[in-house]
Amino acid sequence: MQSAYVNWGSSRIKLTWKKEMALPEYHLMSSAHGFCFHERKLLMVYLDDRGWDFPGGHLEKDESPEECLYLGCLEIDHHENPVWDNNSPYPKVGYQVFYKMKINNFYPFKGDHESSLRKLINPDEVATYYKSWHELYQTILDEAMVGS
């Protein structure tokens, strides 16, 4: 396991990559993300409210992640976060799940919801696009690159 502390807004959060962890219980999953590849290029999407990111997002009610492409979980631990309280929309210890996907076909992209652009980049350039890139994301990307 590898851990890191990051600042998310005004909060300091402990993140732990758990590659071998089984899929967490649904109520503990706050979001799902994918490292999506096409000819060894990584897909990035531009989110209107925060810039370039990898595809994914919060799980909606009755939405479940696909287990067949599951890479592992990033544990989000708020125990040392002084701004977290019982009214938070997230559990005190929650998980972001990550997947690896191969893109076979591109379909028309309207960009009329939360994201306005998409592009394929060299995975070595991801830190220049993603504002909050850190070593745990790099570990997850490295895992996803195996066999891509």
Concise structural overview:
The protein is mostly beta strands. It has 2 helices and 9 strands, in the order E-E-E-E-E-E-E-E-E-H-H.
List its traits.
10% helix; single chain; 9 strands; 2 helices; mainly beta; 148 residues
Question: Would you give an account of this structure?
Answer:
- The protein is built from 2 helices and 9 strands.
- The protein has 148 residues and is mainly beta.
- Helix content is 10%, strand content 43%.
- The model has no long low-confidence stretch (mean pLDDT 88).
- The two termini are 23 Å apart.
Count of individual helical segments: 2
Shape: globular
Number of strands: 9
State the helical fraction.
Answer: 10-25%
Taking the alpha carbons of the first and last residues, their distance comes to 23 Å
Q: Write the element-wise H/E pattern from the N-terminal end onward.
A: EEEEEEEEEHH
Mean pLDDT: 88
- Helix/strand/pairing class, anyone? mainly beta
What is the secondary structure topology, with strand pairs?
Blueprint: E1 2-8, E2 11-18, E3 29-38, E4 41-47, E5 51-53, E6 56-58, E7 70-77, E8 93-102, E9 115-121, H1 126-129, H2 135-145
Parallel strand pairs: 3-8
Antiparallel strand pairs: 1-2, 2-7, 3-4, 3-6, 4-5, 4-9, 7-8
